[in-house]
Amino acid sequence: MSIKNKSVLITGASKGIGRALALVLAKKGANLGLVARSEIELLSLKAEIELMGAKAEIFVGSVANEDFVKETIHAIVKSYGKIDALINNAGFGIFRKATEISTADWDSIYDTNVKGTFLFCREAIPHMKSAGGGHIINIASDVAKRVFDGGSLYCSSKYAQDAFSMALRKEVRKDAIKVSVVYSGLVDTYFHNKSEGDPHQAKYLTSQDMADTITYILEAPKHVVIDELMIHPISQDY
């Protein structure tokens, strides 16, 4: 399915996977909504996209802020007339023993990784229903399917995001709304407290790998939904 002139909203768009995806979709002629906390990085991305001849609206704020989410969805629909696809990519991790996790740690992870996904889905779905369909892609992690020592907080948030996605898929399938989940392994981004391109991450997936994968899911024929896609670098044993 062609992405040209489709309205696509990406959270966590200022760097890494979100930024790479925005550039791929811009080249294909999508109309983009870009969400992140960093205005400087979003402005830079918007300028790059517009030089390519594509359209981009930026929204600076927290995905866990209900008013911000409502205003963002309203603005996208007002600008482009619709929202065809939502990519819930915003997320981060805190890795500590359970006894060392603070309440603030817990709340911040669940606010971004789970609540943000919920809020954007809740606000976008009515518009997708009115348009006769749409596509939601939630970027999870392979730890939505496994756990590890020190990962109780992050893993549980991704399990929650995955469970929400699976139940949501059953709710909206009858409305021609696709819900896809991508479970990624190690990716060369800032997520691991290293700079993108750090030698220690040389064998990881790249942000471009992830962007191409997400685009593949978006471009599936209208009657096809890729419910789940697990992706790893060949160097990582899952």
Your description of this structure?
The protein is α/β, with parallel strands linked by helices. The protein is 43% helix and 16% strand. It has helices spanning 16-27, 39-51, 66-80, 103-131, 152-172, 207-218; strands at 7-11, 31-36, 55-60, 85-88, 134-139, 177-184, 228-231. α1 crosses α6 and α4 runs parallel beside α5 (152-172).
How would you summarize the topology of this molecule?
Blueprint: E1 7-11, H1 16-27, E2 31-36, H2 39-51, E3 55-60, H3 66-80, E4 85-88, H4 103-131, E5 134-139, H5 152-172, E6 177-184, H6 207-218, E7 228-231
Parallel strand pairs: 1-2, 1-4, 2-3, 4-5, 5-6, 6-7
Helix pairs in contact: 1-6, 3-4, 4-5
Helical content class: 40-55%
Which overall shape is indicated by the principal axes computed on the Cα atoms? Answer: globular
The span between the termini is 31 Å
Q: Return the string of H and E elements.
A: EHEHEHEHEHEHE
Number of strands: 7
Oligomer: single chain
Summarize the structure.
The chain is built from six helices and seven strands. It has one domain (7-231): Rossmann fold (3-Layer(aba) Sandwich), CATH 3.40.50.720. Helices cover 43% and strands 16% of the residues.
Task: List its salient traits.
Rossmann fold, globular, alpha/beta, 238 residues, single chain, 7 strands, 6 helices, seven-stranded parallel β-sheet, 16% strand
